[in-house]
Amino acid sequence: MITHTFPLIEVAGDSYTMGREHGEQAVTLIHRYLLWIERLTRIPRDRLCANAMRLLPRIAALSPRFIDEVRGLADGAGISFEEALLCQARAEAAHAHDGGCSAFALTGSATADGRPLAGQNQDLEPEYADVAILLRMKPDDGRPRALMFTFAGQLGYAGMNAHGVAHFANALYDCPWQPGLPHYPLKRLMLEQPSVDACISLLREHPTCSAANVVLCDGNGRVADVEVRPEGIAVFQDAHPDARLHTNHYLTPEFSTLETNSLADSCPRLDRLRVLVRSAWGTITVDTLKAILADHAGDPGGICRHGERGMHSISGYIADPANRVLHVRRGHGCLGSWEAYDI
C-alpha cells in the first residue's frame, strides 16, 4: 500500500540560504502556487504584487531575517522579489478571507498521559493540496529547528519547533481590513519562540491586517487560544482549563458581539467537537484525535469537511510536543493518510 504524503523540503543555514534552497527544491510548485493565487482571487498578478509590496515596511520591521529568506526564495525559484513577497501575503494582498478549520489544544486531565496534544483540520479549497509542502528548517544562527505545513513559497504557516511550541489557526470573519501585518510572517516568527507565553506576547505587540484565531501549545505543557484582530488580541479561556476548542466564530467576551454567523456550520462543528472531547476525556491520545478529525456529523460541514462553502479538510495535524513529533495527514480525515515526523 502506497502512503500519500506531502512533498518534504529540507533547508538549512542562514536565512538567505534557507530561502534559496526552498526555492530551488520547490520551484515548480511555487510557480503553481502563484498561478493558483491569481485564479483564486481573480486579480492580476501585477496588482497582487503591488498590494503585497505595500506591506513590505511592516514585514521588514518585524524581521529583517524574514526578508532575507524571501530574497533567497526569489533567487532560488527564479521569480521576482515582488512575487516571492506575494507568497507571504496571499490573503492580505487580495483582501480575502478563506478557510474553515476545527482546532483543539488539550492537556492535563484531558489526555491519557497528562501531556499536551494540539492540532486541527485544515479546511480550504481542494486545489491548495496540489501546492502544499512540508518545510523542515534548520537555521544555523541559534533559532530552533522547526517543521511546518505550508504552501510552496510561503514561509509561515502551521507547525512545531524544537521547543515543542506548536500553533494552529482558525479563520475568523466579520473584520474590516486595516493597515497591519500579514498573518504568515507572524506564524513563522511564532515557530522561533521558546514558549506559549512568548507567542502571545508576539501577537500582542504586532497588530495584524485581519482577524484569525490561534491555538497554541508547548513542551512545558502549556496550552492557549488567542483571538486576533487589528485592534488587539483576546485570550480565550475555555470552560475547562485543560482544553481549548475553537472553530470559526468569536468566543471571547471582547469580540463575541462582533459575530454575525458568517460561517453557518461553525457553531454546530464546535458543539460536536465538545461532545467528542467530553466523551473521551481523560483517555485522549493521538489516535483518539485522528478519529475526532474524521467525524462526519453535520455533513457536508462536519469536523471532516466535504465541500460546505467549497471547503474540504485537505489536511490535518496533531502536535505531540512532549515527544517533539508532528503528525500530518494528507486528505480528508476519513480517507487520508497520516505520517509522523520528528522535529
Give an account of the 3D structure.
The chain has 343 residues and is an alpha+beta fold. It folds into 2 domains: 87 residues, no CATH class; 241 residues, Penicillin V Acylase, Chain A. The chain contains 11 helices and 14 strands. An 8-stranded mixed β-sheet has the order 1-4-5-6-7-8-9-10. Helix 1 runs parallel beside helix 5 and helix 4 crosses helix 5. The radius of gyration is 18 Å and the shape is globular.
Indicate the low-confidence ranges by residue numbers: none
Class from secondary-structure proportions: alpha+beta
Biggest pleated sheet? 8 strands, mixed
Name given to the CATH homologous superfamily of the largest domain: Penicillin V Acylase, Chain A
Beta-strand proportion: 15-25%
Helix content: 25-40%
What's the structural domain tally?
Answer: 2
Spatial separation of the terminal alpha carbons: 26 Å
Please give the radius of gyration in angstroms.
18 Å
At CATH level 2, the architecture of the largest domain is 4-Layer Sandwich
